[in-house]
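Dear colleague,

As promised, here are the two records you asked about, laid out in our usual form so they can be pasted straight into your sheet.

NAME FIELD: protein one
SEQUENCE, THEN STRUCTURE:
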Amino acid sequence: MRKHYIDNLRTSIVLLVIIYHVCYIFNGVGVLGGIPNSLSLPICDGFASLVYPWFMVLLFIIAGMSSAYSLEKRSTKEFIASRTQKLLVPSTLGLFVFHFITGLVNTRLGGAELSNVPLLVRYFIYVLSGTGVLWFAQLLWFFSLILCLLRNIKLFEKYRLKEKKSIYLPVIIIYLSSLVLNAPIITVYRVGIYLASYLIGYYVFSDENVVERVEKTVYISLAIALASGVIYISSFYGSDYTAPSCLQNVITNIYAYFTSIFLIGIFKRFFDKTNSVLSYLSASSFGFYVLHYTPILLIGVLVSNSGLNVYLRYLLTLLLGSISTLLLYEVIKRIPFYRYLVLGIRNKR
């Protein structure tokens, strides 16, 4: 049976990511990768810092849950083939046919002088610089392979089938994993905490009994999330929320974990349903995720060089970026072979 609350939660996070990236490209708190010298709004910087600790943690937890449900219907070979098509192809081959555009803009914004570099070499630089949001798909594919190896260890699978699991103990794992396997400079590659989140989703939250307990204790999770969130904001508001001093703080990780399980519980309780709009958004959410950053960045650059009011800059970037993402998705998914490279959608036989 389809778990609509997971679909709706995943869709909500993707839409949140789109809003976050509008705040991110104009950020005024020193997060690397934004548009240089752009005007920013403190309230938007505050929003970005508020969601950053938990929204990708939650997305990986959901991915782990979804992997468990997928493996109930697929063999390991079929699962890896499916993950390769959907995740690896768009995050590698898609760089060469679409996301190099992001790389071109990024290198220009970064002040790189490439006019004397041969065109072919420049193209490969743009490709390598265009990864952007595709890091999520790259890590998720890698984690899927690790999961397939771990499933052969009986001790782990025995734990997954265990009737009673703690819904609070994983917060310790989340915190400890935040301290390890963090890539230098490219801070989005937080391999430790994201791998832990993915495996927690698979081994813990794919169990319906666990989700039912999360649903029943949702207001306890909310209280802990709010309390830790207040401490987190009071400690790090106005600073670089991607810095290790923030992301490896124990309060930050308590806030990230309990916000995540609160949202799982609240969506299970109130949003385990669907309709034609929600069904479309669920089916399209990965495509929106893959495509959204390029139009947002391009529109952000255009409005940052205008004389528009700062509020209008944010609003237009979000509105036009979202519309452009939708149109791009609808066009690209109809182009044979190209849709496979960019979105991982095979041609219909």
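NAME FIELD: protein two
SEQUENCE, THEN STRUCTURE:
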Amino acid sequence: MDNLELNVEDQVTEEVVEETSPISLLPFEEENVDFDTFCKSDFRVVKVKDCVAVPKSKKLLQFTLDDGTGTDRTILSGVHAFYEPEELVGKTLLAIVNLPPRSMMGIDSCGMLMSAIHEENGEEKLNLVMLNDAIPAGAKLE
């Protein structure tokens, strides 16, 4: 499969926020990552094939993802306070896929889903980065 270039500004699905909702951005972290380290991150488009709550966890959802390789990828993400599993099936998301597996609740998570966090009316909100469904699984973010 050819690597497809992805322009985030053109492809990220916009969320509509009511004008009456005061929104504040969380402060930037002070720790810097050098350019060479950042360039090693492999950001890919993934399609959610299945999503279920992880038993005995209040926060974790287990995603079964199509990452364009022909083999399903499992990623666990602590987003259950913000999403129900069934609303994420079929969505197109952004993930870092070259992280070492991390075991959580006895399940290996092979990557990390990208999200945005902000405050709204004094409450923390989280939005997974959702992309245009026309972008194929496995497309590389450049």
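A couple of things worth noting about protein two: The chain is about 5% helix and 35% strand. The longest helix spans residues 35-39.

Best,
R.
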